[in-house]
Structures are given as structure tokens and as C-alpha cells.
Amino acid sequence: MTPIDESSDAFPSGPEVNVGIFERGASVTMGTALLALALSQRRARGAFAFGLLGAYLAWRGATGHCALYEALDTGTSEDEEDERLDAGGHDDTSLEAAVTIARPPEEVYAFFRRLENLPRFMAFIESVQAEGATRSRWRARGPGGQTFDWAAEILEDRPGELIAWRADPGALVHHAGAVRLRPAPGGRGTEVRLDVEYQPPGSPLGRSMARLLGTATEYVVEEDLRRLKQLLEAGETATTLGQPQGQPDRLART
User: Fold this and answer.
1) Superfamily of domain 84-234
2) Helix/strand number for the chain, H first, E second
3) Counting CB atoms within 10 angstroms of each CB, which of 71, 152, 189, 233 has the fewest?
4) How do strand 162-167 and strand 147-158 relate by DSSP bridges?
5) What angle do CA 51, 57, 63 make, to 5 degrees?
């Protein structure tokens, strides 16, 4: 008798889990309720549709898989959230851009590493307050003018090369980012690549639909880098971002 290799394709894995545990419970509860309603009102108009919807929701909760989440490359499971901690890992939520700044990598790194400088060129960030060597508190604007706060942590810090950070898992706002630095060819300064993920509160499905319908707040990371380049090369930006009307934003000499 040939032994069964449980690691082989003879036991195909089920659908990918992309629904979080709380949402799975809600789906099972609602699906069961809809099935019970359909059975109790078998002859009523729409009972069949309610039954189908209830069966799907119950299956969705039991398997932890949502076909719509899969199509939109999103989800609420813990594994999905862990993957999103890597900036640049998801094309639908990650924004990236690059620029060459006529300053040495050490100077660009020092400006970035002082986290209080970030609101001076990052459009949606209102303030960042350091709370230790790697911890910080962020405040940002969201759709409709709301403000949101969250705690974040620096995950990797290589002077002159890389700073990577993320919001704490489970934070109200999903935010992650990384800035990568390297000397530009010909001694022209520093090549700066900025990757940012920013999602204000709301369900992943709602955020995805907002992006598809064009109702999500547009965030242009290229504009952030343009302001950063102006700050580091000229000591001020061409806009009045974060400053009183008509006052330039001058580079702090720290």
C-alpha cells in the first residue's frame, strides 16, 4: 500500500482566506438568518434570492474566502493585513516615486530621520511626534476634513540608505512607507525613492469601490518629492504648505 503524501497536490488547499475572523462570524450569522427567513417564507416573492444570498454568506463565513475581495486584491484577514505592512506590496494601495536631489545621502537621510520634518512635504500628514528611538505618533487628514491619529514604528533604519516604517497593526489608519537613498551617478547628489501606503478608516471593500468609482481622495507622492527637493536644495518650497498665507517654508538648520 503506497503511503499518502499529505504535502502533495492530492489534498488541494481550499480557497484563500481573505476575510477576517470578525467579518466571518458576521457573515455566518447573517447568512444563517437569511436562510431561516427564506425557509419560513418559501412562497413569498424574493424568498429564493434571500436563500441564495444567505447560502453564499454562510459559505463565505465558513471558508473565509470572498470572491469580490479576491478580484479587488484586498481583504480583512490577519495574513492580508500582515502583507500590507510592506510598502509597495500591493499595486492598488501603494504609491511610489523617485527624484534626484542635489544633496549628499547623509544630509537627505538626516532630514528624513527627524520625523517632525515629514509634514513639511507630505501632503496628507499634519504632524509627527517622536516618542523614542523608533516610536512615533502621527496625525493626518482624511476625506471630508476629518483628522486621524495613530502610532507607528520604524522597522528598519540604515543611515544614509533606508528608513522603513509602518502604523501599528490594528491601527485606525493603515499607513506604511519606506524611503530608499543611494548616490546619484556623476556625483549629482542622491537618488530618492519614496514608497507610501495610506488608507484612512473604512472597510477594504468600501475603499476599493471608492478607488474604482473615482471618489477616493487622490494622493500624489510625486508632489511630496517635489516639495522635498525644493526644501533640501533651495531651503523653501514654492507653496505655502503648512505655513501661514504668503510665508515660505524654510529648511530648519538642525
Assistant:
1) START domain (3.30.530.20)
2) 7, 7
3) 71
4) antiparallel
5) 130
The span from the CA of 84 to the CA of 96, in Å, is: 15
- Condensed to tens digits (0 to 9), the pLDDT of residues 71-101 reads 655 555 554 444 443 444 444 446 788 999 9
What is the signed CA dihedral for 46, 50, 53, 59, rounded to 10 degrees?
-150
**pTM of the model as a whole:** 0.55
Locate 120 and state its grid cell: 513639511
Q: How many Cβ atoms from other residues are within 10 Å of residue 71's Cβ?
A: 9
Cell numbers at residue 232, please? 533640501
The C-alpha angle with vertex 250 and arms to 248 and 253, in degrees rounded to 5, equals 170
Domain boundaries defined on the chain: 21-72, 84-234
Query: 213-220 long-range CB contacts below 8 Å, 24 or more apart?
Result: 216/143, 217/124, 217/142, 217/143, 219/95, 219/123, 219/124, 220/95, 220/123
